[in-house]
Amino acid sequence: MSTHLRLALGGILVAGPASLSGQTAADSASVTAFYGEWFGSTRQGLERYASFYATGGMILPPGAPPAVGRAAIAQWLGQAQTTSPYRIRPEGIAVDEMRFLGLDWVVYRSTLRGQRVPKAGGEPAPFETKYVDLLHRTEAGRWEVAYRMWNDNR
Q1: Given this model, what pLDDT does residue 21 score?
Q2: For the whole model, what pTM was predicted?
Q3: Distance between CA 25 and CA 33 in Å, rounded?
Q4: Alpha-carbon distance 43 to 39, whole Å?
Q5: pLDDT, averaged in runs of 10, over the chain (154 residues)
Q6: Does the residue 18 lie in any domain?
Q7: Is residue 15 part of a domain?
Q8: The domain spanning residue 33 has which CATH number?
Q9: What SS3 state is found at 37?
Q10: What is the rounded CA–CA span in Å between residue 21 and residue 19?
Q11: How far is it, in rounded angstroms, from Cα 22 to Cα 103?
Q12: Structural domains of the chain, count
């Protein structure tokens, strides 16, 4: 099989194994730094959080239609926070996989563990949610989320 194999991913051509040799520790560190900055942005509001998505980025929430674009993502997240009967108390996140599909595309799988605390009172319940993100590095060198999907491990 040719090392120049190419994969079609959502209409985007992603370099195959030949390009993976170009991945460096600095590339991995830049993805880790991106997540630190992105998750730290929640204190700055939903629009700031959504700005880490590509202009046409998409979330695929469980049991709901996709939200496409930064404004729709911010709106969906705001509505989800308002209507959720729980407050989330995170206890930790594990990076399950960081797979470079090429120099500018990464699949990032993670698992968030914590407790859901009922807003109306009551005992917290443990949870574990797995996430799959597809990241793209822009021409300016900044990472952005192209797609995000998640669901609970029950």
Answers
A1: 54
A2: 0.84
A3: 12
A4: 9
A5: 33 39 86 96 95 98 97 97 95 96 96 97 97 97 98 88
A6: no
A7: no
A8: 3.10.450.50
A9: helix
A10: 5
A11: 7
A12: 1
What does the alpha-carbon distance between residue 154 and residue 140 come to, in Å, rounded to a whole number? Answer: 40
Residue where the block lists tokens 């952005």: 144
The answer as to whether 4 is a domain residue is no
H or E element, residue 32 = helix 25-40
Q: Tokens for 131?
A: 């996430």
CA 133 to chain centre: 4
Please give the pLDDT value at position 18: 37
Domain range for 76: 24-152
Q: Can you give the pLDDT at residue 25?
A: 93
Q: Which two tokens stand for residue 36?
A: 């630190």
Residue 42 lies in a domain: yes
Name the token pair of 22. Answer: 């170009």
The full length of the chain comes to 154
Pick from 79, 26, 28: nearest CA to 50: 79
What is the spatial distance between Cα 144 and Cα 9, in angstroms, rounded to a whole number?
Answer: 16
| 73/133 Cα distance (integer angstroms) | 14
Phi, psi of 113 (to 5 degrees): -120, 145
